[in-house]
Amino acid sequence: MEKKDIDWSNLGFGYIKTDKRYVSNFKDGAWDEGVLTDDDKVVISECAGVLQYAQTVFEGLKAYTTEKGNIVVFRPDLNAERLEQSALRLEMPAFPRDRFVDAIVETVKANDGFVPPYGTGATLYIRPYMFGSNPVIGVKPADEYQFRVFCTPVGPYFKGGAKPITIRVSDFDRAAPHGTGNIKAGLNYAMSLHAIVTAHKEGFDENMYLDPQTRTKVEETGGANFIFVTKDGTLVTPKSDSILPSITRRSLVYVAKEYLGLKVEEREVFFDEMKDMAECGLCGTAAVISPVGKIVDHGKEICLPSGMADMGPVTRKLYDTLTGIQMGRIEAPEGWIKVIE
Ligand code: PLP
Ligand code: COI
């Protein structure tokens, strides 16, 4: 398909309706075969499980145009696995993993005119999701579900792209101990909206959430995991049962060890350690790696030595290697890249 007339280099992180989306329905204990459709509207009962009790889970991944001109997606098998984990936690049926990957491929292929060209800085964000669709009034899981995949071309998640951002320590918690922080459920994001709106009003780009039990350990932000670089060049990333197992973070841990020869620690990270860190970044599909220049804790500023002008040197190497793998400039580990066309 011919490329759409879009100003690729000036895209923000927003929704643009594309031509096709994938839909499959679950009824009487089975998924139907699924179709691509032009219809971007969802019609469900006023009493649908998703509307009453927020029974919905989702994923996020991207398609890239490589240096050679292929369209590829990054590790969709891991999104398939995570969607399954999320669905099971909310008593929803699993969508078969191989069918998940096929649905991604079909949706991207059907919208290939919307995949941003190589070198524009933009990518195609893909949003698979599933929700309870039949009427539910007593608190219980739905019996019928819809799985959908749409996509939209996007630019950077934070305005300014790779420019360091300022975050604040949130007084609100993102997840409860033994709650749903480790799955990708809409409910985790609904409850973060007040915190992000007030953060923006106060001039901050994002929230740093601490562990809800002790409020001494760093968890993650509303939409990304954390990475830190210590002054001796070790990559440190928080380990917690209540954060999302980020595919970007897991990939960066591998890249740091195997491509860059860095020492990596995945462990509890105490907020008290922030003052000793050399670099900090948010990592995720949407965020890629967004450098953090300043962390504000109730008026007390912690300024990272990497500053507010550019990414720190280790963050830069991680960013260049990860995006190099995604865009086909650097050889990928086996199985990381799914070529679509
Ligand atoms: N943490 C949260 C809360 C997220 O919403 C996301 C985005 O998906 C991530 C972390 C990063 O995960 P991934 O790298 O798999 O996109
Ligand atoms: C993603 O990175 O895919 C996410 O879902 C984060 C979201 C805040 C846009």
TrEMBL record:
Give the enzyme's main class according to its UniProt record, as a single word. Answer: transferase
Which reaction is this enzyme known to catalyze? L-isoleucine + 2-oxoglutarate = (S)-3-methyl-2-oxopentanoate + L-glutamate; L-valine + 2-oxoglutarate = 3-methyl-2-oxobutanoate + L-glutamate; L-leucine + 2-oxoglutarate = 4-methyl-2-oxopentanoate + L-glutamate
Report the domain of life of the source organism. Answer: Bacteria
- UniProt-listed Pfam families: Aminotran_4 (PF01063)
Query: Does the UniProt entry include the keyword Transferase?
Result: yes
Molecular function as annotated in GO:
L-isoleucine-2-oxoglutarate transaminase activity; L-leucine-2-oxoglutarate transaminase activity; L-valine-2-oxoglutarate transaminase activity
Coiled coil segments of this chain: none
Q: Which GO terms describe its biological process?
A: isoleucine biosynthetic process; L-leucine biosynthetic process; L-valine biosynthetic process
Provide the alphabetized UniProt keywords: Aminotransferase, Pyridoxal phosphate, Transferase
Q: Give the protein's cofactors.
A: pyridoxal 5'-phosphate
**Residues recorded as bearing N6-(pyridoxal phosphate)lysine in the entry:** K184
Task: Name the EC number(s).
Answer: 2.6.1.42
Q: What pathway does the annotation place this protein in?
A: Amino-acid biosynthesis; L-leucine biosynthesis; L-leucine from 3-methyl-2-oxobutanoate: step 4/4; Amino-acid biosynthesis; L-valine biosynthesis; L-valine from pyruvate: step 4/4; Amino-acid biosynthesis; L-isoleucine biosynthesis; L-isoleucine from 2-oxobutanoate: step 4/4
Q: Does the keyword Lyase apply?
A: no
Q: Which family does it belong to?
A: Belongs to the class-IV pyridoxal-phosphate-dependent aminotransferase family.
Q: Which protein, by its recorded name, is this?
A: branched-chain-amino-acid transaminase
